Amino acid sequence: MARAKKVSQWGFVGMGGMACVLFLDLGTANIAPWWVTLLFVLLWVVLFLVALSWFLPHPKWVPWLPLLAFVVWLPTIVLGTRHLGWGA
């Protein structure tokens, strides 16, 4: 009889975070130039593929990926709106 392996909840937490970051990235289209939004979405796709590959073997690493995406997103938007005139 095959034994079921317990799945960690951290992978699901990270994937939920990735969904939230995607909404932030897509919402950037109203503030930043189109190419900034495109770069954010491309970064999200790369991080999502990493999250998928880490989901079972390293589930505790997955929540760090949306945090990394947010750490890139926030200063970019703040600096862009303050110094580059985005959203004006």
Into how many domains do the coordinates divide?
A: 1
Helix and strand run: HHH
* Overall shape: elongated
Question: What is the share of helical residues?
Answer: 55-70%
What's the Cα radius of gyration?
A: 16 Å
Distance between the termini: 64 Å
Uncertain segments are: none
State the helix count: 3
In this structure, how is the largest beta sheet organized? Answer: none
Mean pLDDT: 94
What is the count of β-strands? 0
Q: In percent, how much strand structure appears in the residues?
A: under 5%
SS-based structural class?
A: mainly alpha
Written description of the protein model:
α1 packs antiparallel against α2, α1 runs parallel beside α3 and α2 packs antiparallel against α3. Helix content is 67%, strand content 0%. It contains three helices and no strands. The mean pLDDT is 94. With 88 residues, it is mainly alpha-helical.
Secondary structure topology:
Layout: H1 10-27, H2 34-54, H3 64-83
Question: What's the gist of this structure?
Answer:
The protein has about 90 residues and is mostly helical. The chain contains 3 helices and no strands. About 65% of the residues lie in helices and about 0% in strands.
